[in-house]
Design brief:
570 residues, alpha+beta, 3 domains, 12-stranded mixed beta sheet, 6-stranded mixed beta sheet, 16 helices, 27% strand, elongated
Length: 570
């Protein structure tokens, strides 16, 4: 006769949540089992092994994509690509064409071109009159380098670290769409297809303009713009130029080589101020037209953080922990105590919207109170606004740090990859570990709005970080670049229930990942009804009460604010 028993549960937390694979196994009475031959025992072991492997594979199938079967992609900060070097060499070759043709510099135009050698000069004080500073304000200058470095104990170290941080910023903010690409004449017009930029109200030489056609009596091209005017930085003999200083300019010559030499000196001056836009330039000749864009905008000002370079990450200098508390001071104290066990000098910023706030004091603690019941996302905004470190870690007030809560791992992947935010994992008292991975996509839907699609899962594993994946939404335990999180922000109207909304707002702005090997514990939520305190009952009333107005608000946010007409989700 056979009896049934249960195999132990195996935690197969590969992606979104822990999957416990448990199943009945048929066995024989002990007397019969003990009489098995070695061959029979070997067969049973193999069968059990096959069952376990099959169970794990089955769990992987039910659990969506698995780390083991996912593609791996390298998103680490890279140096200059071979394609970029190849394009730069090609541009240099084009610029050397027709170099033997003489030209004459136009000083009034050439002096307006960027030289990458900016200096800060103050106006000289020429006369002294009452109220002269008000009537004729002088330009003053201040040498930041001299002022700051003179007072710094190690100026060479900070200069070196500043250069490293800026190099990292440049690599992180670089986009292949910014690379200058010149389309060699096929039409027969030659022109830049991308990568041409000008600062607002400034002047540049348009690179790569050219004409490649058969010999004729006269060769002519036209350039036309909307937000700027054209000029030439130098004149070439035998070339006629009409429309200098206007938004439509004609260049012609009986000598094709002379015309092409003149085209190397065509300038564009932005005349309509806008901090970030683009002008579409028409470049044409008889029977042919081409269009290309000139990006107009201020250069992004880097935001660099100075932390002394060490063999190991200085978490106290790099990371601030942010949290919000409401009616759970006991949980908050447990969180602070657990943080101090592993990170005694990391700053903790607390946003508090309790009706009767209690004092929360201690070293490296900043406690900010808010109007009563102001809400979840408003608290996040307040806490984030007070962070001064390069990274901020968000943790709920009922989380507990353990030996597995290694913030160094989160910092490491943020330092070495293009990620802006990386989530961890949250372990419940039951042993269940969640990472809450979702992919988000928006499908165009016409006049009625777009379609929002949310699915469990991730995009791919990160090369060099086998426990980390790229995704679009993570669990409520994450570390991010402070300035990038501020750019997205949290909708303060979402007061009680919100999480995924932030990641929907971040779509297209933040590069997000998740690492399952950084784990924080979740305080137990198992409370017997008769043992609940007044504070716990009040918290549950605020946290879990659901009204029609709450549902209406979320519908409004998605429908009106985000312009979605519908959404699908697992």
């Amino acid at each position: 006769m056979q009896t049934g028993r249960w195999l132990p549960c195996f935690n197969a937390d590969y992606r979104i949540r822990s999957v416990y694979i448990c199943g009945p196994v048929t066995t024989r009475p002990a007397a019969i089992v003990s009489g098995k031959t070695p061959q029979m025992r070997s067969t049973v072991k193999k069968s059990l092994g096959l069952i376990l492997v099959s169970g794990l594979l089955l769990a992987a199938v039910f659990n969506g994509k698995n780390y083991l079967f996912s593609s791996t992609v390298d998103i680490q900060l890279t140096q200059e690509s071979p394609v970029k070097k190849l394009l730069q060499e090609k541009i240099q070759e084009l610029s050397r064409e027709h170099h033997d043709i003489a030209y004459h510099i136009k000083e009034d135009v050439a002096c307006r071109l960027a030289q990458n050698t900016c200096v800060c000069l103050a106006d000289k004080k020429t006369f002294h009159l009452p109220y002269s500073e008000l009537l004729f304000p002088r330009v003053w200058s201040h040498n930041l380098g001299a002022a700051f470095l003179e007072s710094h104990p190690d100026p060479e170290d900070i200069k070196h670290h500043r250069a490293q941080e800026y190099s990292s910023f440049r690599r992180r903010s670089y986009s292949p769409a910014d690379l200058l690409i010149i389309n060699e004449a096929n039409s027969p017009l030659q022109y830049p297809t991308q990568g041409v930029e000008v600062r607002p109200l400034k002047t540049i030489i348009i690179p790569g303009l050219g004409l490649k056609e058969e010999a004729r009596l006269n060769h002519m091209v036209y350039v036309k713009a909307t937000l700027g005017t054209f000029d030439i930085a130098a004149t070439v003999d035998s070339v006629s130029v009409k429309g200098v200083g206007e938004n439509y300019m004609t260049l012609s010559s009986p000598l094709l080589s002379a015309l092409n030499r003149q085209l190397q000196f065509v300038t564009y001056t932005n005349t309509v101020f806008h901090p970030k836009t683009a002008d579409t330039v028409q470049f044409s000749t008889e029977g042919h037209k081409a269009f290309f864009t000139i990006k107009i905008g201020h250069q992004i000002v880097p935001k660099l953080y100075y932390t002394r370079q060490q063999t190991e990450y200085n978490i106290s200098a790099l990371v601030t922990i942010a949290t919000k508390t409401f009616l759970r001071y006991d949980k908050l104290k447990d969180l602070i105590s657990s943080v101090r066990q592993y990170y005694p000098s990391v700053t903790i910023v607390i946003a508090d919207d309790n009706e009767h706030p209690q004092k929360v004091t201690g070293p490296y603690i900043e406690h900010y109170t808010m109007p009563f019941g102001k809400g979840w996302f408003a608290g996040r905004n307040l806490a984030l606004s007070q962070v001064t470190t390069k990274y901020v870690l968000w943790a709920d007030d009922d989380f507990i740090f353990t030996a597995n809560t290694k913030l160094e791992k989160m910092v490491d992947i943020l330092e070495k990859t293009t990620l802006d935010l990386v989530g961890g994992a949250v372990r419940e008292v039951t042993g269940y570990t969640a990472t809450y991975l979702h992919t988000i996509s928006v499908e165009e839907g016409g006049e009625e709005g777009d379609c929002l699609h949310i699915r469990n899962g991730f995009h791919h594993v990160i090369d060099g970080f086998p426990k980390c994946v790229v995704t679009d939404a993570v669990i409520n335990f994450f570390m991010g670049r402070t300035d990038k999180l501020r750019e997205v922000g949290f909708n303060p109207r979402l007061a009680r229930k919100a999480h995924l909304e932030f990641f929907i707002d971040a779509l297209g702005s933040l590069h997000i990942g998740s690492c399952s090997d950084v784990i924080v514990n979740h305080a137990s939520k198992i409370i017997l009804p008769w043992s609940k305190t007044d504070s716990q009952m009040a918290y549950e009333k605020f946290r879990y009460s659901s009204t029609s107005s709450d549902a209406d608000l979320h519908d409004e946010v998605f429908y009106y604010r985000n312009r979605f007409k519908c959404m699908t989700s697992h």
